[in-house]
Specification:
Elements (H helix, E strand, L loop, with lengths): L1 H4 L22 H4 L1 H8 L2 H10 L11 H13 L5 H15 L10 H9 L3 H19 L4 E2 L2 E12 L4 H7 L10 E9 L4 E9 L4 H8 L7 E5 L6 H9 L3 E5 L6 E2 L11 E6 L2 H5 L5 E8 L7 E5 L9 H10 L2 H12 L10 H24 L2 E2 L2 E2 L6 H19 L2 H16 L29 H13 L1
Parallel strand pairs: 2-5, 5-6
Antiparallel strand pairs: 1-2, 2-3, 3-4, 6-10, 7-8, 8-9, 9-10, 11-12
Amino acid sequence: MLAQLKRPSPDRMDVFAKPFSGRQPMCTHFTALTACWTAWLTPQIWKQAHHCHRPKKTSPQWKLHPVIMVLLLMTWTSGDSEAERFATARACYVAHHQHGKRPGQTLQGFQHALVQLPLPVLHALCAAVRSRLYDLWHRYWRSNGFVVMACDGSRLECPRSAELEKRLGCCGKTASAPMLFLSAVVLLPAGVLWSWCVGPGTASEHAQLRQLLPTLPRCTLLVADAFYQGYELYTAILQANASFLVRLSSRSQLYTDRRLPLARFREGLVWYWPTKAQDRQQPPLRLRLIRVRGSKKQDVWLLTNVLGPERLGRQRAAEIYRWRWHIEGVFRTYKRTLPKIKLCSRTEALVYREAEVSLLGLQLLLAQAAARQRRDGVPVLVLGSARQELLRVRGAITTTIGARLGPWQRRWYQQRLAQVQAGGGGRKVRRKWPRRKDHKAPKPPKIRVLPTRLKAKMVKRFRAA
């Protein structure tokens, strides 16, 4: 009898299980929140993170697991302030770990423990999740022998604190807000975030992409827009045993063996050998140029190192490049749906950790949304709805807090939440922020006595009229 009532281990849950219907509302927290925890953040993944975590000082109330999980829940939950999101995330974590040690109760203590968390630990955790994605999906994501990935960059606005303005500097217009620069690689066509690199707002997109090349799986076809042009970048991609499909602009100069009529040109082999590479005595690159007819006479010129048309045809290349737009949707989901259009942390150490963990939370949401897509019982990597998955997780957080917290725990959470909501925005710092020029009212007109010559001129015109 006990064997029949025993539930299966959450570590063995099928990631690609069909979502529960609306007739089973009590299982929401098992299908949404617990699936993100047990299916993607397995004990083996946490073991790799703990292996890299060897701090000199450890907080007595904040260990590695609660720090990362609470920050991850703060990314998913909703709230008007950081303190409100922290109270809800901590209550959800306590509800799921009733038999574990209670974490700290204050936001200041949590932030102090988060600062002591080394960034390599977060990088190791993200690498372990990435390997988990590869183990589950490597049989379904290849297209014509390629693993199609897209890369692009975006800036993340940060608060105008004195430390961030000093450390991050100005990367845009004069007196603009401090920013971080994010370079991301996305699995196409599913639109799942694969890897990322976060740096100051003045970071180089090409340099960050070269840092992400070791994270690419074998036989990767990297799709990029016209900004990713350069001999050094193409050489680095080739040395990483990957292929690329990049849009060209007038900044690139190509060479052909014979004169070609451009009016009828569709595809052909070219030489890419910029002047700097010639001066450095570097060899030319033999590449293939593809011309795709666009609407309104706006043709798209694509450059790739896949020389054989039988492996990557012109129509297939055009279709793959259209998939690149999914990475813009990933950035929009991160900034608007989570929302992270502006980060909340006010110190350099906290803002980097907030960005890393929030991107991990986005990756888990996108992976879970893509894993729900099935066709004839087989997983199909198509674009899923991250917003619906986020709403499921938020509903699961509310359900978990209401169902698993004890009476004293629930009372403490309600009191803490009411205190945070009534506390306002905290201490206000009066600083003169860079903004538009203050409006100045027009000065009064100058009133003077009419001179004699103007008076005579006026009388003369009056008589003539």
